[in-house]
Write a structure and sequence with these properties.
This is Toxin. Keywords: Membrane, Toxin-antitoxin system, Transmembrane, Transmembrane helix. InterPro entries: ParE1/4, RelE/ParE_toxin, RelE/ParE_toxin_dom_sf. 28% of the residues are buried. The protein is of the alpha+beta class and 101 residues long. Helix 1 packs antiparallel against helix 2. A five-stranded mixed β-sheet has the order 1-5-4-3-2. It is built from two helices and five strands, in the order βααββββ.
Length: 101
C-alpha cells in the first residue's frame, strides 16, 4: 500500500497553515482543510508522478497544486516524501529544498 511521509519542515508548514486557518476561518474550516490536504497526500502517494517536475530546485522534486497551496514532494518506492507545503503567493524559488531530511 502506498503511503506518504512528511519532512520536519512540511510538518511545520502544515502547523502554520492550520494555525492561520483557525485564526482566519475558524476551527472547523481549518480541520476540514487539513483533512482535504491529507487526502491529497494519499492520492499523490498512489500516483506519485502526478505533479510537475521542478528538478531545477532539487533533483527529482515535483510540485502539485492544492487549492491555494503548492505541495513539493519526492516520489519514493513507498509513495511520496512531502518536502514542503507553501502558499502559492510565496516565492518558492527562494525557499530552501536542500535541508528537508
Amino acid at each position: 500500500m502506498a503511503k506518504y511521509k512528511l519532512s520536519i519542515q512540511a510538518e511545520r508548514d502544515l502547523a502554520s497553515i492550520f494555525e492561520y486557518g483557525i485564526f482566519q476561518f475558524g476551527l472547523n474550516q481549518a480541520q476540514y482543510f487539513l483533512m482535504e490536504i491529507e487526502q491529497t497526500f494519499e492520492g499523490l502517494s498512489r500516483f506519485n508522478m502526478s505533479g510537475i517536475d521542478v528538478s531545477e530546485l532539487y533533483l527529482g522534486l515535483r510540485k502539485y497544486a492544492f487549492k491555494s497551496h503548492l505541495i513539493f514532494y519526492l516520489p519514493t518506492t513507498y509513495g511520496v516524501f512531502i518536502v514542503r507545503v507553501l502558499h502559492q503567493s510565496r516565492d518558492y524559488m527562494r525557499s530552501s529544498f536542500e535541508d528537508f531530511v
